[in-house]
Amino acid sequence: MQLLGCIADDFTGATDIGAALVKAGYRTAVTIGHATVESADSVDAVVVALKTRTTPVDDAVDASTAAYDALVAAGADRFYFKYCSTFDSTETGNIGPVTDALLDRTGASTAIMVPSFPANGRTVYQGHLFVGDALLSDSSMRNHPLTPMTDANLERVLAPQTSRPVRRIGLATVRGEQDALTAAITETPGLVILDAIDDSDLARIAAATPAEVLLTGGAGLAAQLTPKEPREAAGALTPTPGRRLVVSGSASEATRGQVSAASDRMPSLHLDLDALGERFDAEIDRILDWAEDHWAAQPDAPVLVYATGSAADLEATATTREEASELIEAALARIASRGVDAGVRQLIVAGGETSGSVVSALGITELLIGPEIAPGVVWANATVDAGPTISIALKSGNFGSEDMFSTAWEHLA
């Protein structure tokens, strides 16, 4: 059996590519960390979820190569490095260094770099990354607190991160003869950025890329891969009934819109950072008591606990962003864990860092990928630290429709 091994640089990215692979017909599991790959015998693809997007370069490389070794031990014979479709990185990495390390590990000479995800408005043209109609550098990503993206030219962004040559293949070649595209991909070793502005471009790239070339990119390319035996039942999931909870730590513009829309439709509580800083345990107790009251009154209704609802919240925490972020992640992880103890069995988590904190707090080691909620967002089933099975959705900050917190539950039916 052929097994596709994927390494994702954050937890929401892992479920993002998991959703894409399920759509393509792969039975897919996401494993948290790299110590073991438990379900390799019953799936067609395994995604290792790491938290390496913003860690020091050496740590990101070590974790990624360890994940690669675990996937090889599980029988993987083709590999995919998944990063964000907005190419989130700094001047030193971690996209370039991890790609270099995986090329060294696999023995491959070439990696394709394909962040395009047209379903979510991410496209590459003439080597420049667009978010919707705007250049990446003119989008909200310009002001990202951890990885501000101030240059849309991917060659300029990537070149300082790698010791290998960086080159680009333009749209005319992508849309030309398949043999010519294959030749262009493989003619010179290095890191190859490809233009792609719609799914048909991604399908051409997937078909033209030889198996020995390392795949890297967003989830868009993964959706165009073809398993040896496509599975119609990929993504089938038995939902776990119980209380419903949304915890949101993301400060992205899209998530703020989702919080605003949900606040009109469900019980919603804004985290009080001052109170958490002064009396953390007591404030967590107060929040859980508030949620318990609402669940008692409406057992099927979700409740929302969020950190950022408006641009004003960003300004309020700007001077202490790092401390505020740590406090938010700790609080939401504790709320999610206590919520599961109180009967939550359907949980939405918004934000990559928040997702990592929540999954770690719950002791989740593996996710079985289920139905798609929106492009890049999916339900999954997971066992909580030798406890109950829950249905959980990990949402990247920029993904999902405005009404997602209210409508996501319908996809579990």
UniProtKB/TrEMBL annotation:
Residue ranges of every copy of the Four-carbon acid sugar kinase N-terminal domain listed in the record: 4-225
Molecular function terms, GO-annotated: ATP binding; kinase activity
Coiled coil: none
Signal peptide segment: none
Keyword Metal-binding: no
Domain of life: Bacteria
Four-carbon acid sugar kinase nucleotide binding domain ranges (all copies): 245-405
EC number(s) given by UniProt: 2.7.1.217
Pfam families cross-referenced by the UniProt entry: NBD_C (PF17042), SBD_N (PF07005)
Keywords: ATP-binding, Carbohydrate metabolism, Kinase, Nucleotide-binding, Transferase
Presence of keyword Kinase: yes
EC top class, as a word: transferase
Catalytic activity: 3-dehydro-L-erythronate + ATP = 3-dehydro-4-O-phospho-L-erythronate + ADP + H(+); 3-dehydro-D-erythronate + ATP = 3-dehydro-4-O-phospho-D-erythronate + ADP + H(+)
Function of the protein: Catalyzes the ATP-dependent phosphorylation of 3-oxo-tetronate to 3-oxo-tetronate 4-phosphate.
Similarity comment text for this entry: Belongs to the four-carbon acid sugar kinase family.
NCBIfam families hit by this protein: OxoTetrKin
Protein name, as recorded: 3-oxo-tetronate kinase
Source organism per UniProt: Homoserinimonas aerilata
